[in-house]
Known about the structure:
- It is built from 18 helices and 43 strands.
- By secondary structure, it is an alpha+beta fold.
- Among the domains are: 14-160, Galactose-binding domain-like (Jelly Rolls); 210-248 and 693-753 and 852-878, no CATH class; 253-353 and 402-642, Neuraminidase.
- Strands 1, 2, 4, 5, 6, 7, 8 and 10 form an eight-stranded antiparallel β-sheet that branches.
- Helix 1 runs antiparallel to helix 2 and helix 11 (740-748) packs parallel to helix 13 (781-788).
- The longest helix is centred in the N-terminal third of the chain and has 29 residues, at 162-190.
- The protein is flat, with a radius of gyration of 33 Å.
- Pfam families: Kelch_KLHDC2_KLHL20_DRC7, Muskelin_N.
- It comes from Psilocybe cyanescens.
- Residues 354-400, 646-679, 757-812 are annotated as: Disordered.
- InterPro entries: CTLH_complex_component, Gal_Oxase/kelch_b-propeller, Galactose-bd-like_sf, Kelch-typ_b-propeller, Muskelin_N.
- This is Muskelin N-terminal domain-containing protein.
Amino acid sequence: MALPALQTSVPKTMPLKYTIASSTPHSGKYGPENIILDKPLDQSSRWSGAFQGNTNQWIMLRLESLAVLKSITFGKSDTSTAHPCNMKEFKVFVGISEDHMAEVLHAGLKNDAVPETFSLKHVNDSGVCFPTQFVKIVPILAHGQNFHISIWHTSLAGIVDSAYVEQVRNAYDEFRETSVMRYVLKHLRQRRLLTPYQSILSRANIHLEHPLVTRLHESLVLQGNWAHSEKLLDSIYSSGLFDSHLHSSQPQSEWTRLLGTDADGDVPPARGGHAMCMDPVNEIIYIFGGWNGEKSLDDFWAYSVKEDKWKILSHSTTQEQNAPGARSCHKMVFDTKTGSIYVLGRLNDLDGLRAPAQSNTRTQHGTLPGAAASQPQSQPTQPPAQAPAPSDESSSDSSEMYSSEFYRYHTRGMLAGKWDFLAIDTAATGGPPLIFDHQMVMDSGAQILYVFGGRVVDGDWDTSKYSGLYSYNVSTSKWKSLHPQGDSSSSSQTIPSRFGHSMVLDSITKTLYIFAGQREEKYLSDMYTYNIGTGIVTEIFSNFSAAGGPDPCFTQRAVIDPYLKELYIFCGLTRNTTSNPRSTLRAYLSNWVYRYDTRPGKWMQILQQPDKTPAELPLPRFAHQVVYNPNTKTIFLHGGNAGGSFSGDVGKGREADGDPPAADAVNEEHKNTAKESKERRLDDFWRMELKRPGPEEIIRQAKFQIRRQQFREMCEEEPPVKALKFLQTQVASAVDHNNAKETEIFRSLLTHLLSPSPAVAPTSPSDSRPSTSSGSTVSSVEHEDTRETSPRPIKRSRAGKESTESGVWTSEISPAAAGADVSPSFLVGGTERLKEVTDPLEALFRGEDAQPTLSGPRYSQRTEVFENILSFISENEKQPTGSLLDLVEKDRCRIIA
Length: 897
């Protein structure tokens, strides 16, 4: 049944009035009604919980009328920029009633005086808008430990237009009715109640699933037509019903080392902190600059993917007109529209150097001499006597020394091979100051560059300064500050600035993803999005590590596929939490490549090829560079520093890329030389492709399940010789013999032939699902066949039989149900006895040539095979996930809670 369409014009969002419905106890005079009032100068105008710390506290708000709630704003005290009682972390739940509420926000507040506004989810996962009457605010943490959590003024905004809200409610009610009815239909068919199932389908005009899925159920479960069931798998794939599963399957990385050279047999030498970009149309990769452990580089290289060849474009750009000099920690992007390369930012050998004896600060490629003592320390790469120091001349003209230069290189047209010096100092024209370890992306369609974060280079390494979010319009040659230094005076959420982070652009949705990096001494694991069209910032994760993502890391690299809506993250430095985090930094060896799917918002580790030795795979590293070609779905990785080779690392050297480890943490045998550190900087070049299970793999797994069931039935009905031949040929051909678990399951099938016994119904058809955690899926047959080798007869109590035959029914559960070994008589064997009875409609579905009877256990077995195959089919094309039993269990748990 189609859902009612909403009116085309959406009413304006307005402030919503509310009252306090209820709350947990409050402290003193700080009652919940205080949050209704906006008195930022009044210290008493707040709610404060009666209990300290993380306890179950909340405030329930009731809207004056049903509304579509779209945002919530939290005011703060204006008398102080920080308060230990200020709420730091919270959740928001909404619902039409107080008893059934859903989480729509989990976020945090800054400890300042600036109000913050958050968008609230008001559309469910099926795309249906829902109304709200009650709002529950659940504070989790205060900014100060062991303080009472306080909430100041709270305001809500949404749509209250009565006609529109009524349409939303009707559409949402219809969605809920349809959803419940689909659960009922699924339940009836699983229990072999085909007559009421078909009656509801015809009367309500509801579609339980895709027609091909229904045909598969009829062919497999009702008819036992194995050949036709397998043929339907090809039709299901052709209709795209497997696409979603194939996309969500855990991929494996397929690495290939690229060994191409230039005409002289050379390749770019080892380095870290270099810049790399790619022309995806002509498949050419460009590399410029970096730090080799002794000095900044100014060589410029191009690699042709099609020819597998390097070409040196310039041995020294310093010697060229209008070209950038030696540098590292800079950024370079490619404009696919014009074929131009833009270069911004730097750290070179003279930027802010101090006496080597001073402490060091970490950069994208290592540590900078002369930084705050709180940063991890390390020995200088070269002896103090050789360390260059700023001359008096450069010191007297610091404005020129620390100017932010901006360059463009042409790869096409009449100017191909030429550099443009676009600006001597971008800060003078509204752009960012001189920065390093920032990020830059290019929206080629709009001809706009975006730059975010980075550490400011101004000669003062005792104070950490960071840059904000800027845009550069290529057409007008103008910079625009979007969020200066990551702190906006507006009420909307802002992105904390940082350096050594990642930023990628979804060119289709015009969304920036900014995450990880370092701020002060902290490695970050948060993620934000910036909507270019609206300027709205949204915090996606405050800690993506807790959501299955990588550890907090620095100088990780990331790329995005805007068509697949996936981010691929190559981890950088992570602190070893088992020892002193100030001196122990390393790249973890086991899990350093991750995938983030933006549509479900889930993290997944990318597995390594099982048939590869460590020597055939790239070392984990930091200060490396990666580029991505979305046309060929290929990632390229170059250089960096394999910092995991020292325990208790990392050291110095222009790119956190692995010069000698910290003096207070390094083992004696690793204390020596710059030679050892230099060898750890890498010059290897790799291609990575993601391999997911193909449709042939899904079809094979489905056939394996179908043929297993066919073999079990043959053991009971056909001569043993015929069943054995089928096992050796047809079943064996559907097995992945390289998969140990599948092979074990296959061998266990022989027990059905040696001692055949009546089929045993599983506990629930929905209890088991195939797993695709390793690309080659192993289904629930593992435990299923183990169970079937020693079947247990179904036990039915005599009392249950007498109760059913007497026709007496009661809705009350007897007191005996409370005992562990006794069930109420009307519940014993009920569902299994339903499956034993042939429904009158089965003859219509099964046809004249079908077997005269179909036992209940066999019906359950076939249903389980069908349900397992359904796990490969897109969610919106199959019956609801879960069952009515799951809904009952959820409701029971809610009542208990």
